[in-house]
Amino acid sequence: MRPFPGSTAPPVGAACDRSSVAEPVCLADFESRARARLPANVWDYIAGGSGDETTLAANRAAFDAVAVLPRVLAGCGVADTGCRLLGAEAGMPVAVAPMAYQRLVHPDGELALAAAARDAGVPYVASTLSSVALADIAAVGGVTWFQLYWLRQRSAVDELLAMAEQAGCQAIMVTVDVPVLGRRLRDVRNEFSLPADVVAANLAAGGKSTAHSVIGGASAIAVHTDELFAPRLGWSDLEWLRARVDLPLVVKGILDPRDAVRAVEAGADAVVVSNHGGRQLDGAAASVAALPAIVDAVDAVGSSCEVLLDSGVRSGVDVLRALALGASGVLVGRPLLWGLAVDGARGARRVLALLADDLRDALTLAGCADPAAARTLAVLRNERGTRQ
Ligand SMILES: Cc1cc2nc3c(=O)[nH]c(=O)nc-3n(C[C@H](O)[C@H](O)[C@H](O)COP(=O)(O)O)c2cc1C
Fold first, then answer.
1. Helix (H, G, I), strand (E, B) or coil at 90
2. Which atom of ligand 1 is nearest to the CA of 56?
3. Which ligand 1 atom is nearest residue 97's CA?
4. Residue 5 has pLDDT above 60, yes or no
5. Among 211, 289, 364, 376, which has the highest number of CB atoms less than 10 A from its own CB?
6. How much is the pTM?
7. 100 within ligand 1 shell (Cβ under 6 A)
8. CB atoms within 10 A of CB 369
């Protein structure tokens, strides 16, 4: 719609100037504030994707293309966002995605984000590459899941698992989409490296590493992870892991239904449909586009394996969309780093509170009493309006 001639108002639907709003009222309001606070190279490390960032953009476009058919006269009033994730109660069907080196954006780093997750009643997934010791993160007192990057030495993997068990983590999430780090061109151009005071606190050699050296024409983080991560993993490794841990096992980074079925057969309790926030294979499918076929495949083998999703979730409406497409819950990544960068634990708490409020409204407006009811909603998923 065009504005009236002479009007200075932006056209309806145009992006508003978010920095002029006094208080953030949605997750996106934190983005510009975080960007203004962070050094440009740290912002690029967080915001960037791999290659031409086509998958990064596709994640949002695919969410925007999902149109929910709300139910009416459902007689349920204001919805309850509470649910169960991996068998435990949660305040909403959301977990904090594992994200490396959170002290890059705020000195309290992982401790602040874990405290915000605890207060919102949602799981906090601690990365192998956390910049705070896992025991200290778990001591914050919420539900902590440990994200495993498979290191080259099996003994080092075993030590990380023992550390997670000892810390009282409630699940192990193994990330399977990083045989090598995706080529993140922003980091290559910036010759990005870690400042000396941000370390991989859970790795024996994390204190001072390749990640801290400026390497001409390269991202030091990528060179460091290539040194660390085992590039040649197979299904037998997942079977080894399943036999090794008694905790619930989550496999993160699946886009093909055949892999989801293999993960179920190997004993996964949940899979995360994810393209790593567009940071691994550029050109990979948007997670939300891949989700329905994976839900169908997991259902078809009669498994109780939960299907979670991440990459591009930016609102409660996006959570509703994912639930309507069959997910049990979602992980949220970058928006929590925006909140953390803006105001530490308080900022991250605010992001989670806005997400919960938005989800509650979205469920209520869709005629759903709770997240489980949202999984019965119908959606239209393309411009031709094909019913899914
Ligand atoms: C700065 C940053 C660091 C990340 N570090 C990890 C990590 O250590 N382990 C992992 O499995 N995924 C990591 N991811 C991927 C996230 O877990 C998640 O898949 C992704 O951010 C979800 O997309 P979103 O940011 O659009 O919500 C990272 C993502 C970002 C943005």
1. strand
2. 26
3. 17
4. no
5. 211
6. 0.94
7. yes
8. 16
CA nearest ligand 1 atom 19, residue: 276
Question: In angstroms, what is the C-alpha Rg of the chain?
Answer: 20
Ligand 1: does its nearest atom lie under 6 Å from the Cβ of 313?
yes
Average pLDDT, the chain: 93
Which is nearest to 355 in space by CA: 18, 120, 15, 58?
A: 120
Is 18 a residue whose pLDDT tops 80? no
Residue of minimum CA distance from atom 6 in ligand 1:
99
Q: What is the pLDDT of residues 50-95, one digit of tens each?
A: 999 999 999 999 999 999 999 999 999 999 999 999 999 999 999 9
Residues whose CB is less than 8 angstroms from the CB of residue 367 and which lie 6 or more positions away in sequence, other chains included: 70, 71, 72, 73, 74, 76, 373
Residue whose structure tokens are 């869709």: 366
How far out from the chain centre does Cα 147 lie? Answer: 12
Q: Copy the structure tokens of residue 212.
A: 């801290």
Compute the CA torsion angle 41, 281, 223, 126 (nearest 10 deg): 70
The atom of ligand 1 lying closest to the CA of 129 is: 8
Q: From CA 220, how far away is CA 212, in angstroms rounded?
A: 7
Contact 46, 38 (CB under 8 A): yes
Give me the amino acid identity at 132: V
Q: Is the pLDDT of residue 2 over 60?
A: no
Can 276 be counted among the known catalytic residues? yes
pLDDT above 50 (res 136): yes
Alpha carbon nearest to ligand 1 atom 4, residue: 99
Buried b (16+ CB within 10 A) or exposed e, 220-243: bbbbbbeebbbeeeeeebbeebbe
pLDDT at 12: 42
Please report which confidence band the pLDDT of residue 19 belongs to, taking 50, 70 and 90 as the band edges: low
Instruction: Please work out whether the CB of residue 277 comes within 6 Å of at least one atom of ligand 1.
Output: yes
- Are 197 and 250 within 8 A, CB to CB? no
Q: Is residue 341 within 8 Å of residue 37, measured between CB atoms?
A: yes
**Ligand 1 contacts CB of residue 310 (under 6 A):** yes
Q: Does the beta carbon of 311 sit less than 6 angstroms from any atom of ligand 1?
A: yes
